[in-house]
Design goal:
Length: about 525
């Protein structure tokens, strides 16, 4: 194309991001991966083929973990945990700070690999999963440095198992790895095949950052969590997805299982006084363009009756402008589904919704594989079977409400949801409704904020969650008892606490037990 032609039509052209950094890493391992145990990959046996959902091109062959490999991973974590827990808190803080620096260096490779394996757009991976990833680790590094003051005589749980979902694997991994490691625990990660490659790369980043062998271990399991759920060597099991493995009832009673925030569609509530254009922009972004962990399972839209017709008409217009395509291209708004098996399930959901609702799907030329068109279903009643779907994904289900009290009743009558997004220009209305909603996090005039300084229940896992119950936090810490250059108000100030940590302990970690 001539320069004059480009200037005339201002077409951006095809500027897809190169995946070379991720593909080179895969090629460096010969496209074959075993388990990551004790700081190294085991021999690969193959058996699980991982392909790019967007193209169907093969990416790698993974190895399904055996019982013996799971036992070995847990044993390696147990061996490393003693020295890791006995190390000064400042040393663990410095290690997490080094890991944060390594993550900044390798972050784009990790984002590219996540996009290749999950089919989510690179924009979504970078802006949702990787945004604030290093800051998250630095925050937990700061807390680790101050644990002796905030939780004196605290004891870590020991070996923690993490069941990693196919969606948002990096986010789920960092959310649990940061506080668990800060508290002196070690990790055994059980990853679904679609999440395994990012998890394995993260384990290698941990090794390069200097974390001792055995502190982070990764297993690939087709039946995710099968080998670590209920294992006697796991002191705390963290379930970071909707599928909870079959567990002995006594396991949960003993407090060994910690699930993440409730799973299910996020509520998106639009009051008559809302800024409609701003609400639609964020709704489209959260539902299709850049879904976050809270909206990974889809959204349920509640619109006040007085503006419903206008809102739905403008929303349909915006949906028509969405562009499917290559997840690596910045022009792509949405890519293929992570699991091709979801196509049939979503088609059945749409057909069910047609029985008592109106279905809108834009006329799109979708030539890529495993892409489901963005779908809006309106006119549904609260009792509609479609509204009971736990994972509508790209199918946006909408219903109306008359009063604020009715909206609250609709939300609270359903199972608890991970989050709700409430839109109203009247803060009086917003603050009257928000506290009444049974949701893990309630955002006002926002959804899926990516600013690492914006905290939510979805990200509020603390190192104290990974300490033994007898270790109670100290309510107040006298400033003169804190390490140098640190104060009580600096609890969440990474620069201050990490500076103190590095002064107290060099980055070098010793595995020798002090007598």
């Amino acid at each position: 194309m001539r320069v004059s032609e480009i200037l005339n039509d201002m077409d951006e052209g095809d500027a897809a991001e190169s995946a070379a950094a991720a593909l080179d890493w895969l090629a460096g391992h010969g496209g074959q991966f075993g388990q990551f145990i004790g700081g190294a990959l085991t021999d690969a046996r193959g058996g699980i083929a991982v392909a790019n959902p967007a193209t169907g091109a093969p990416l790698a062959m993974l190895t399904d973990a055996t019982t013996a490999e799971a036992d070995a991973a847990i044993a390696a974590a147990r061996t490393a945990q003693g020295d890791w827990a006995r190390a000064p808190a400042s040393a663990r803080a410095a290690h997490l700070a080094a890991l944060a620096a390594a993550l900044r260096s390798e972050g784009r490779r990790l984002a590219l690999l996540t996009t290749l394996t999950t089919g989510r757009t690179l924009r979504s991976t970078l802006e949702v999963e990787m945004a604030g990833a290093a800051e998250c680790l630095e925050r937990h590094a700061a807390r680790a440095a101050l644990l002796p003051q905030t939780c004196p005589d605290s004891k870590p749980l020991g070996v923690c198992g993490l069941i990693l979902p196919a969606r948002f694997p990096v986010w789920a991994l960092l959310r649990s790895a940061g506080p668990a490691l800060a508290a002196g625990n070690t990790l055994v990660v059980s990853a679904a095949p679609q999440a395994a490659l990012p998890a394995l790369l993260f384990a290698e980043i941990c090794r390069k950052a200097g974390l001792p062998a055995g502190v982070v271990n990764v297993l690939t399991e087709t039946d995710t969590g099968a080998h670590i759920a209920g294992h006697a060597g796991i002191d705390r099991l963290v379930v970071a997805g909707p599928a909870l493995p079959k567990l002995d009832g006594a396991e949960a009673e003993r407090g060994r299982v910690m699930t993440e925030a409730p799973h299910g569609p996020c509520w998106f509530i639009v009051d008559a006084e809302a800024d409609i254009e701003a609400a639609i922009a964020d709704l489209v972004d959260a539902a299709w363009g850049r879904p976050g962990p809270a909206t990974a399972a889809g959204l349920h839209l509640l619109v006040q009756e007085g503006i419903a017709e206008t809102f739905h008409a403008r929303l349909q217009h915006r949906i028509r402008q969405l562009s499917p395509g290559d997840p690596l291209s910045p022009q792509t708004d949405f890519g293929p589904l992570t699991s091709p098996d979801d196509i049939g399930r979503l088609k059945a959901l749409v057909e069910s919704a047609r029985e008592d609702g109106e279905v809108f799907q834009p006329d799109m030329d979708i030539t890529e594989r495993d892409i489901f068109p963005p779908t809006l279903v309106t006119g549904l009643s609260p009792a509609s079977p479609a509204m009971q779907a736990e994972d509508p994904g790209p199918v946006l289900l909408s219903k109306t409400f008359r009063t604020a009290d009715e909206a609250v009743q609709m939300v609270n009558a359903a199972a608890p949801r991970p989050a709700a997004s409430l839109w109203s220009e009247s803060l009086t209305t917003a603050f009257a409704i928000a506290p009444k909603l049974t949701a893990g996090t309630v955002w006002i005039n926002a959804v899926n904020p990516t600013d690492p300084n914006v905290r939510s229940a979805l990200e509020d896992t603390h190192a104290m969650d990974f300490l033994r119950p007898k270790s109670a936090p100290v309510a107040d810490v006298a400033p003169d008892t804190l390490p140098p250059d640190t104060n009580a108000s600096g609890m969440d100030d990474p620069a201050t606490a990490i500076s103190a940590a590095r002064k107290a302990q060099s980055l070098k970690f010793t595995s020798k037990t002090r007598k």
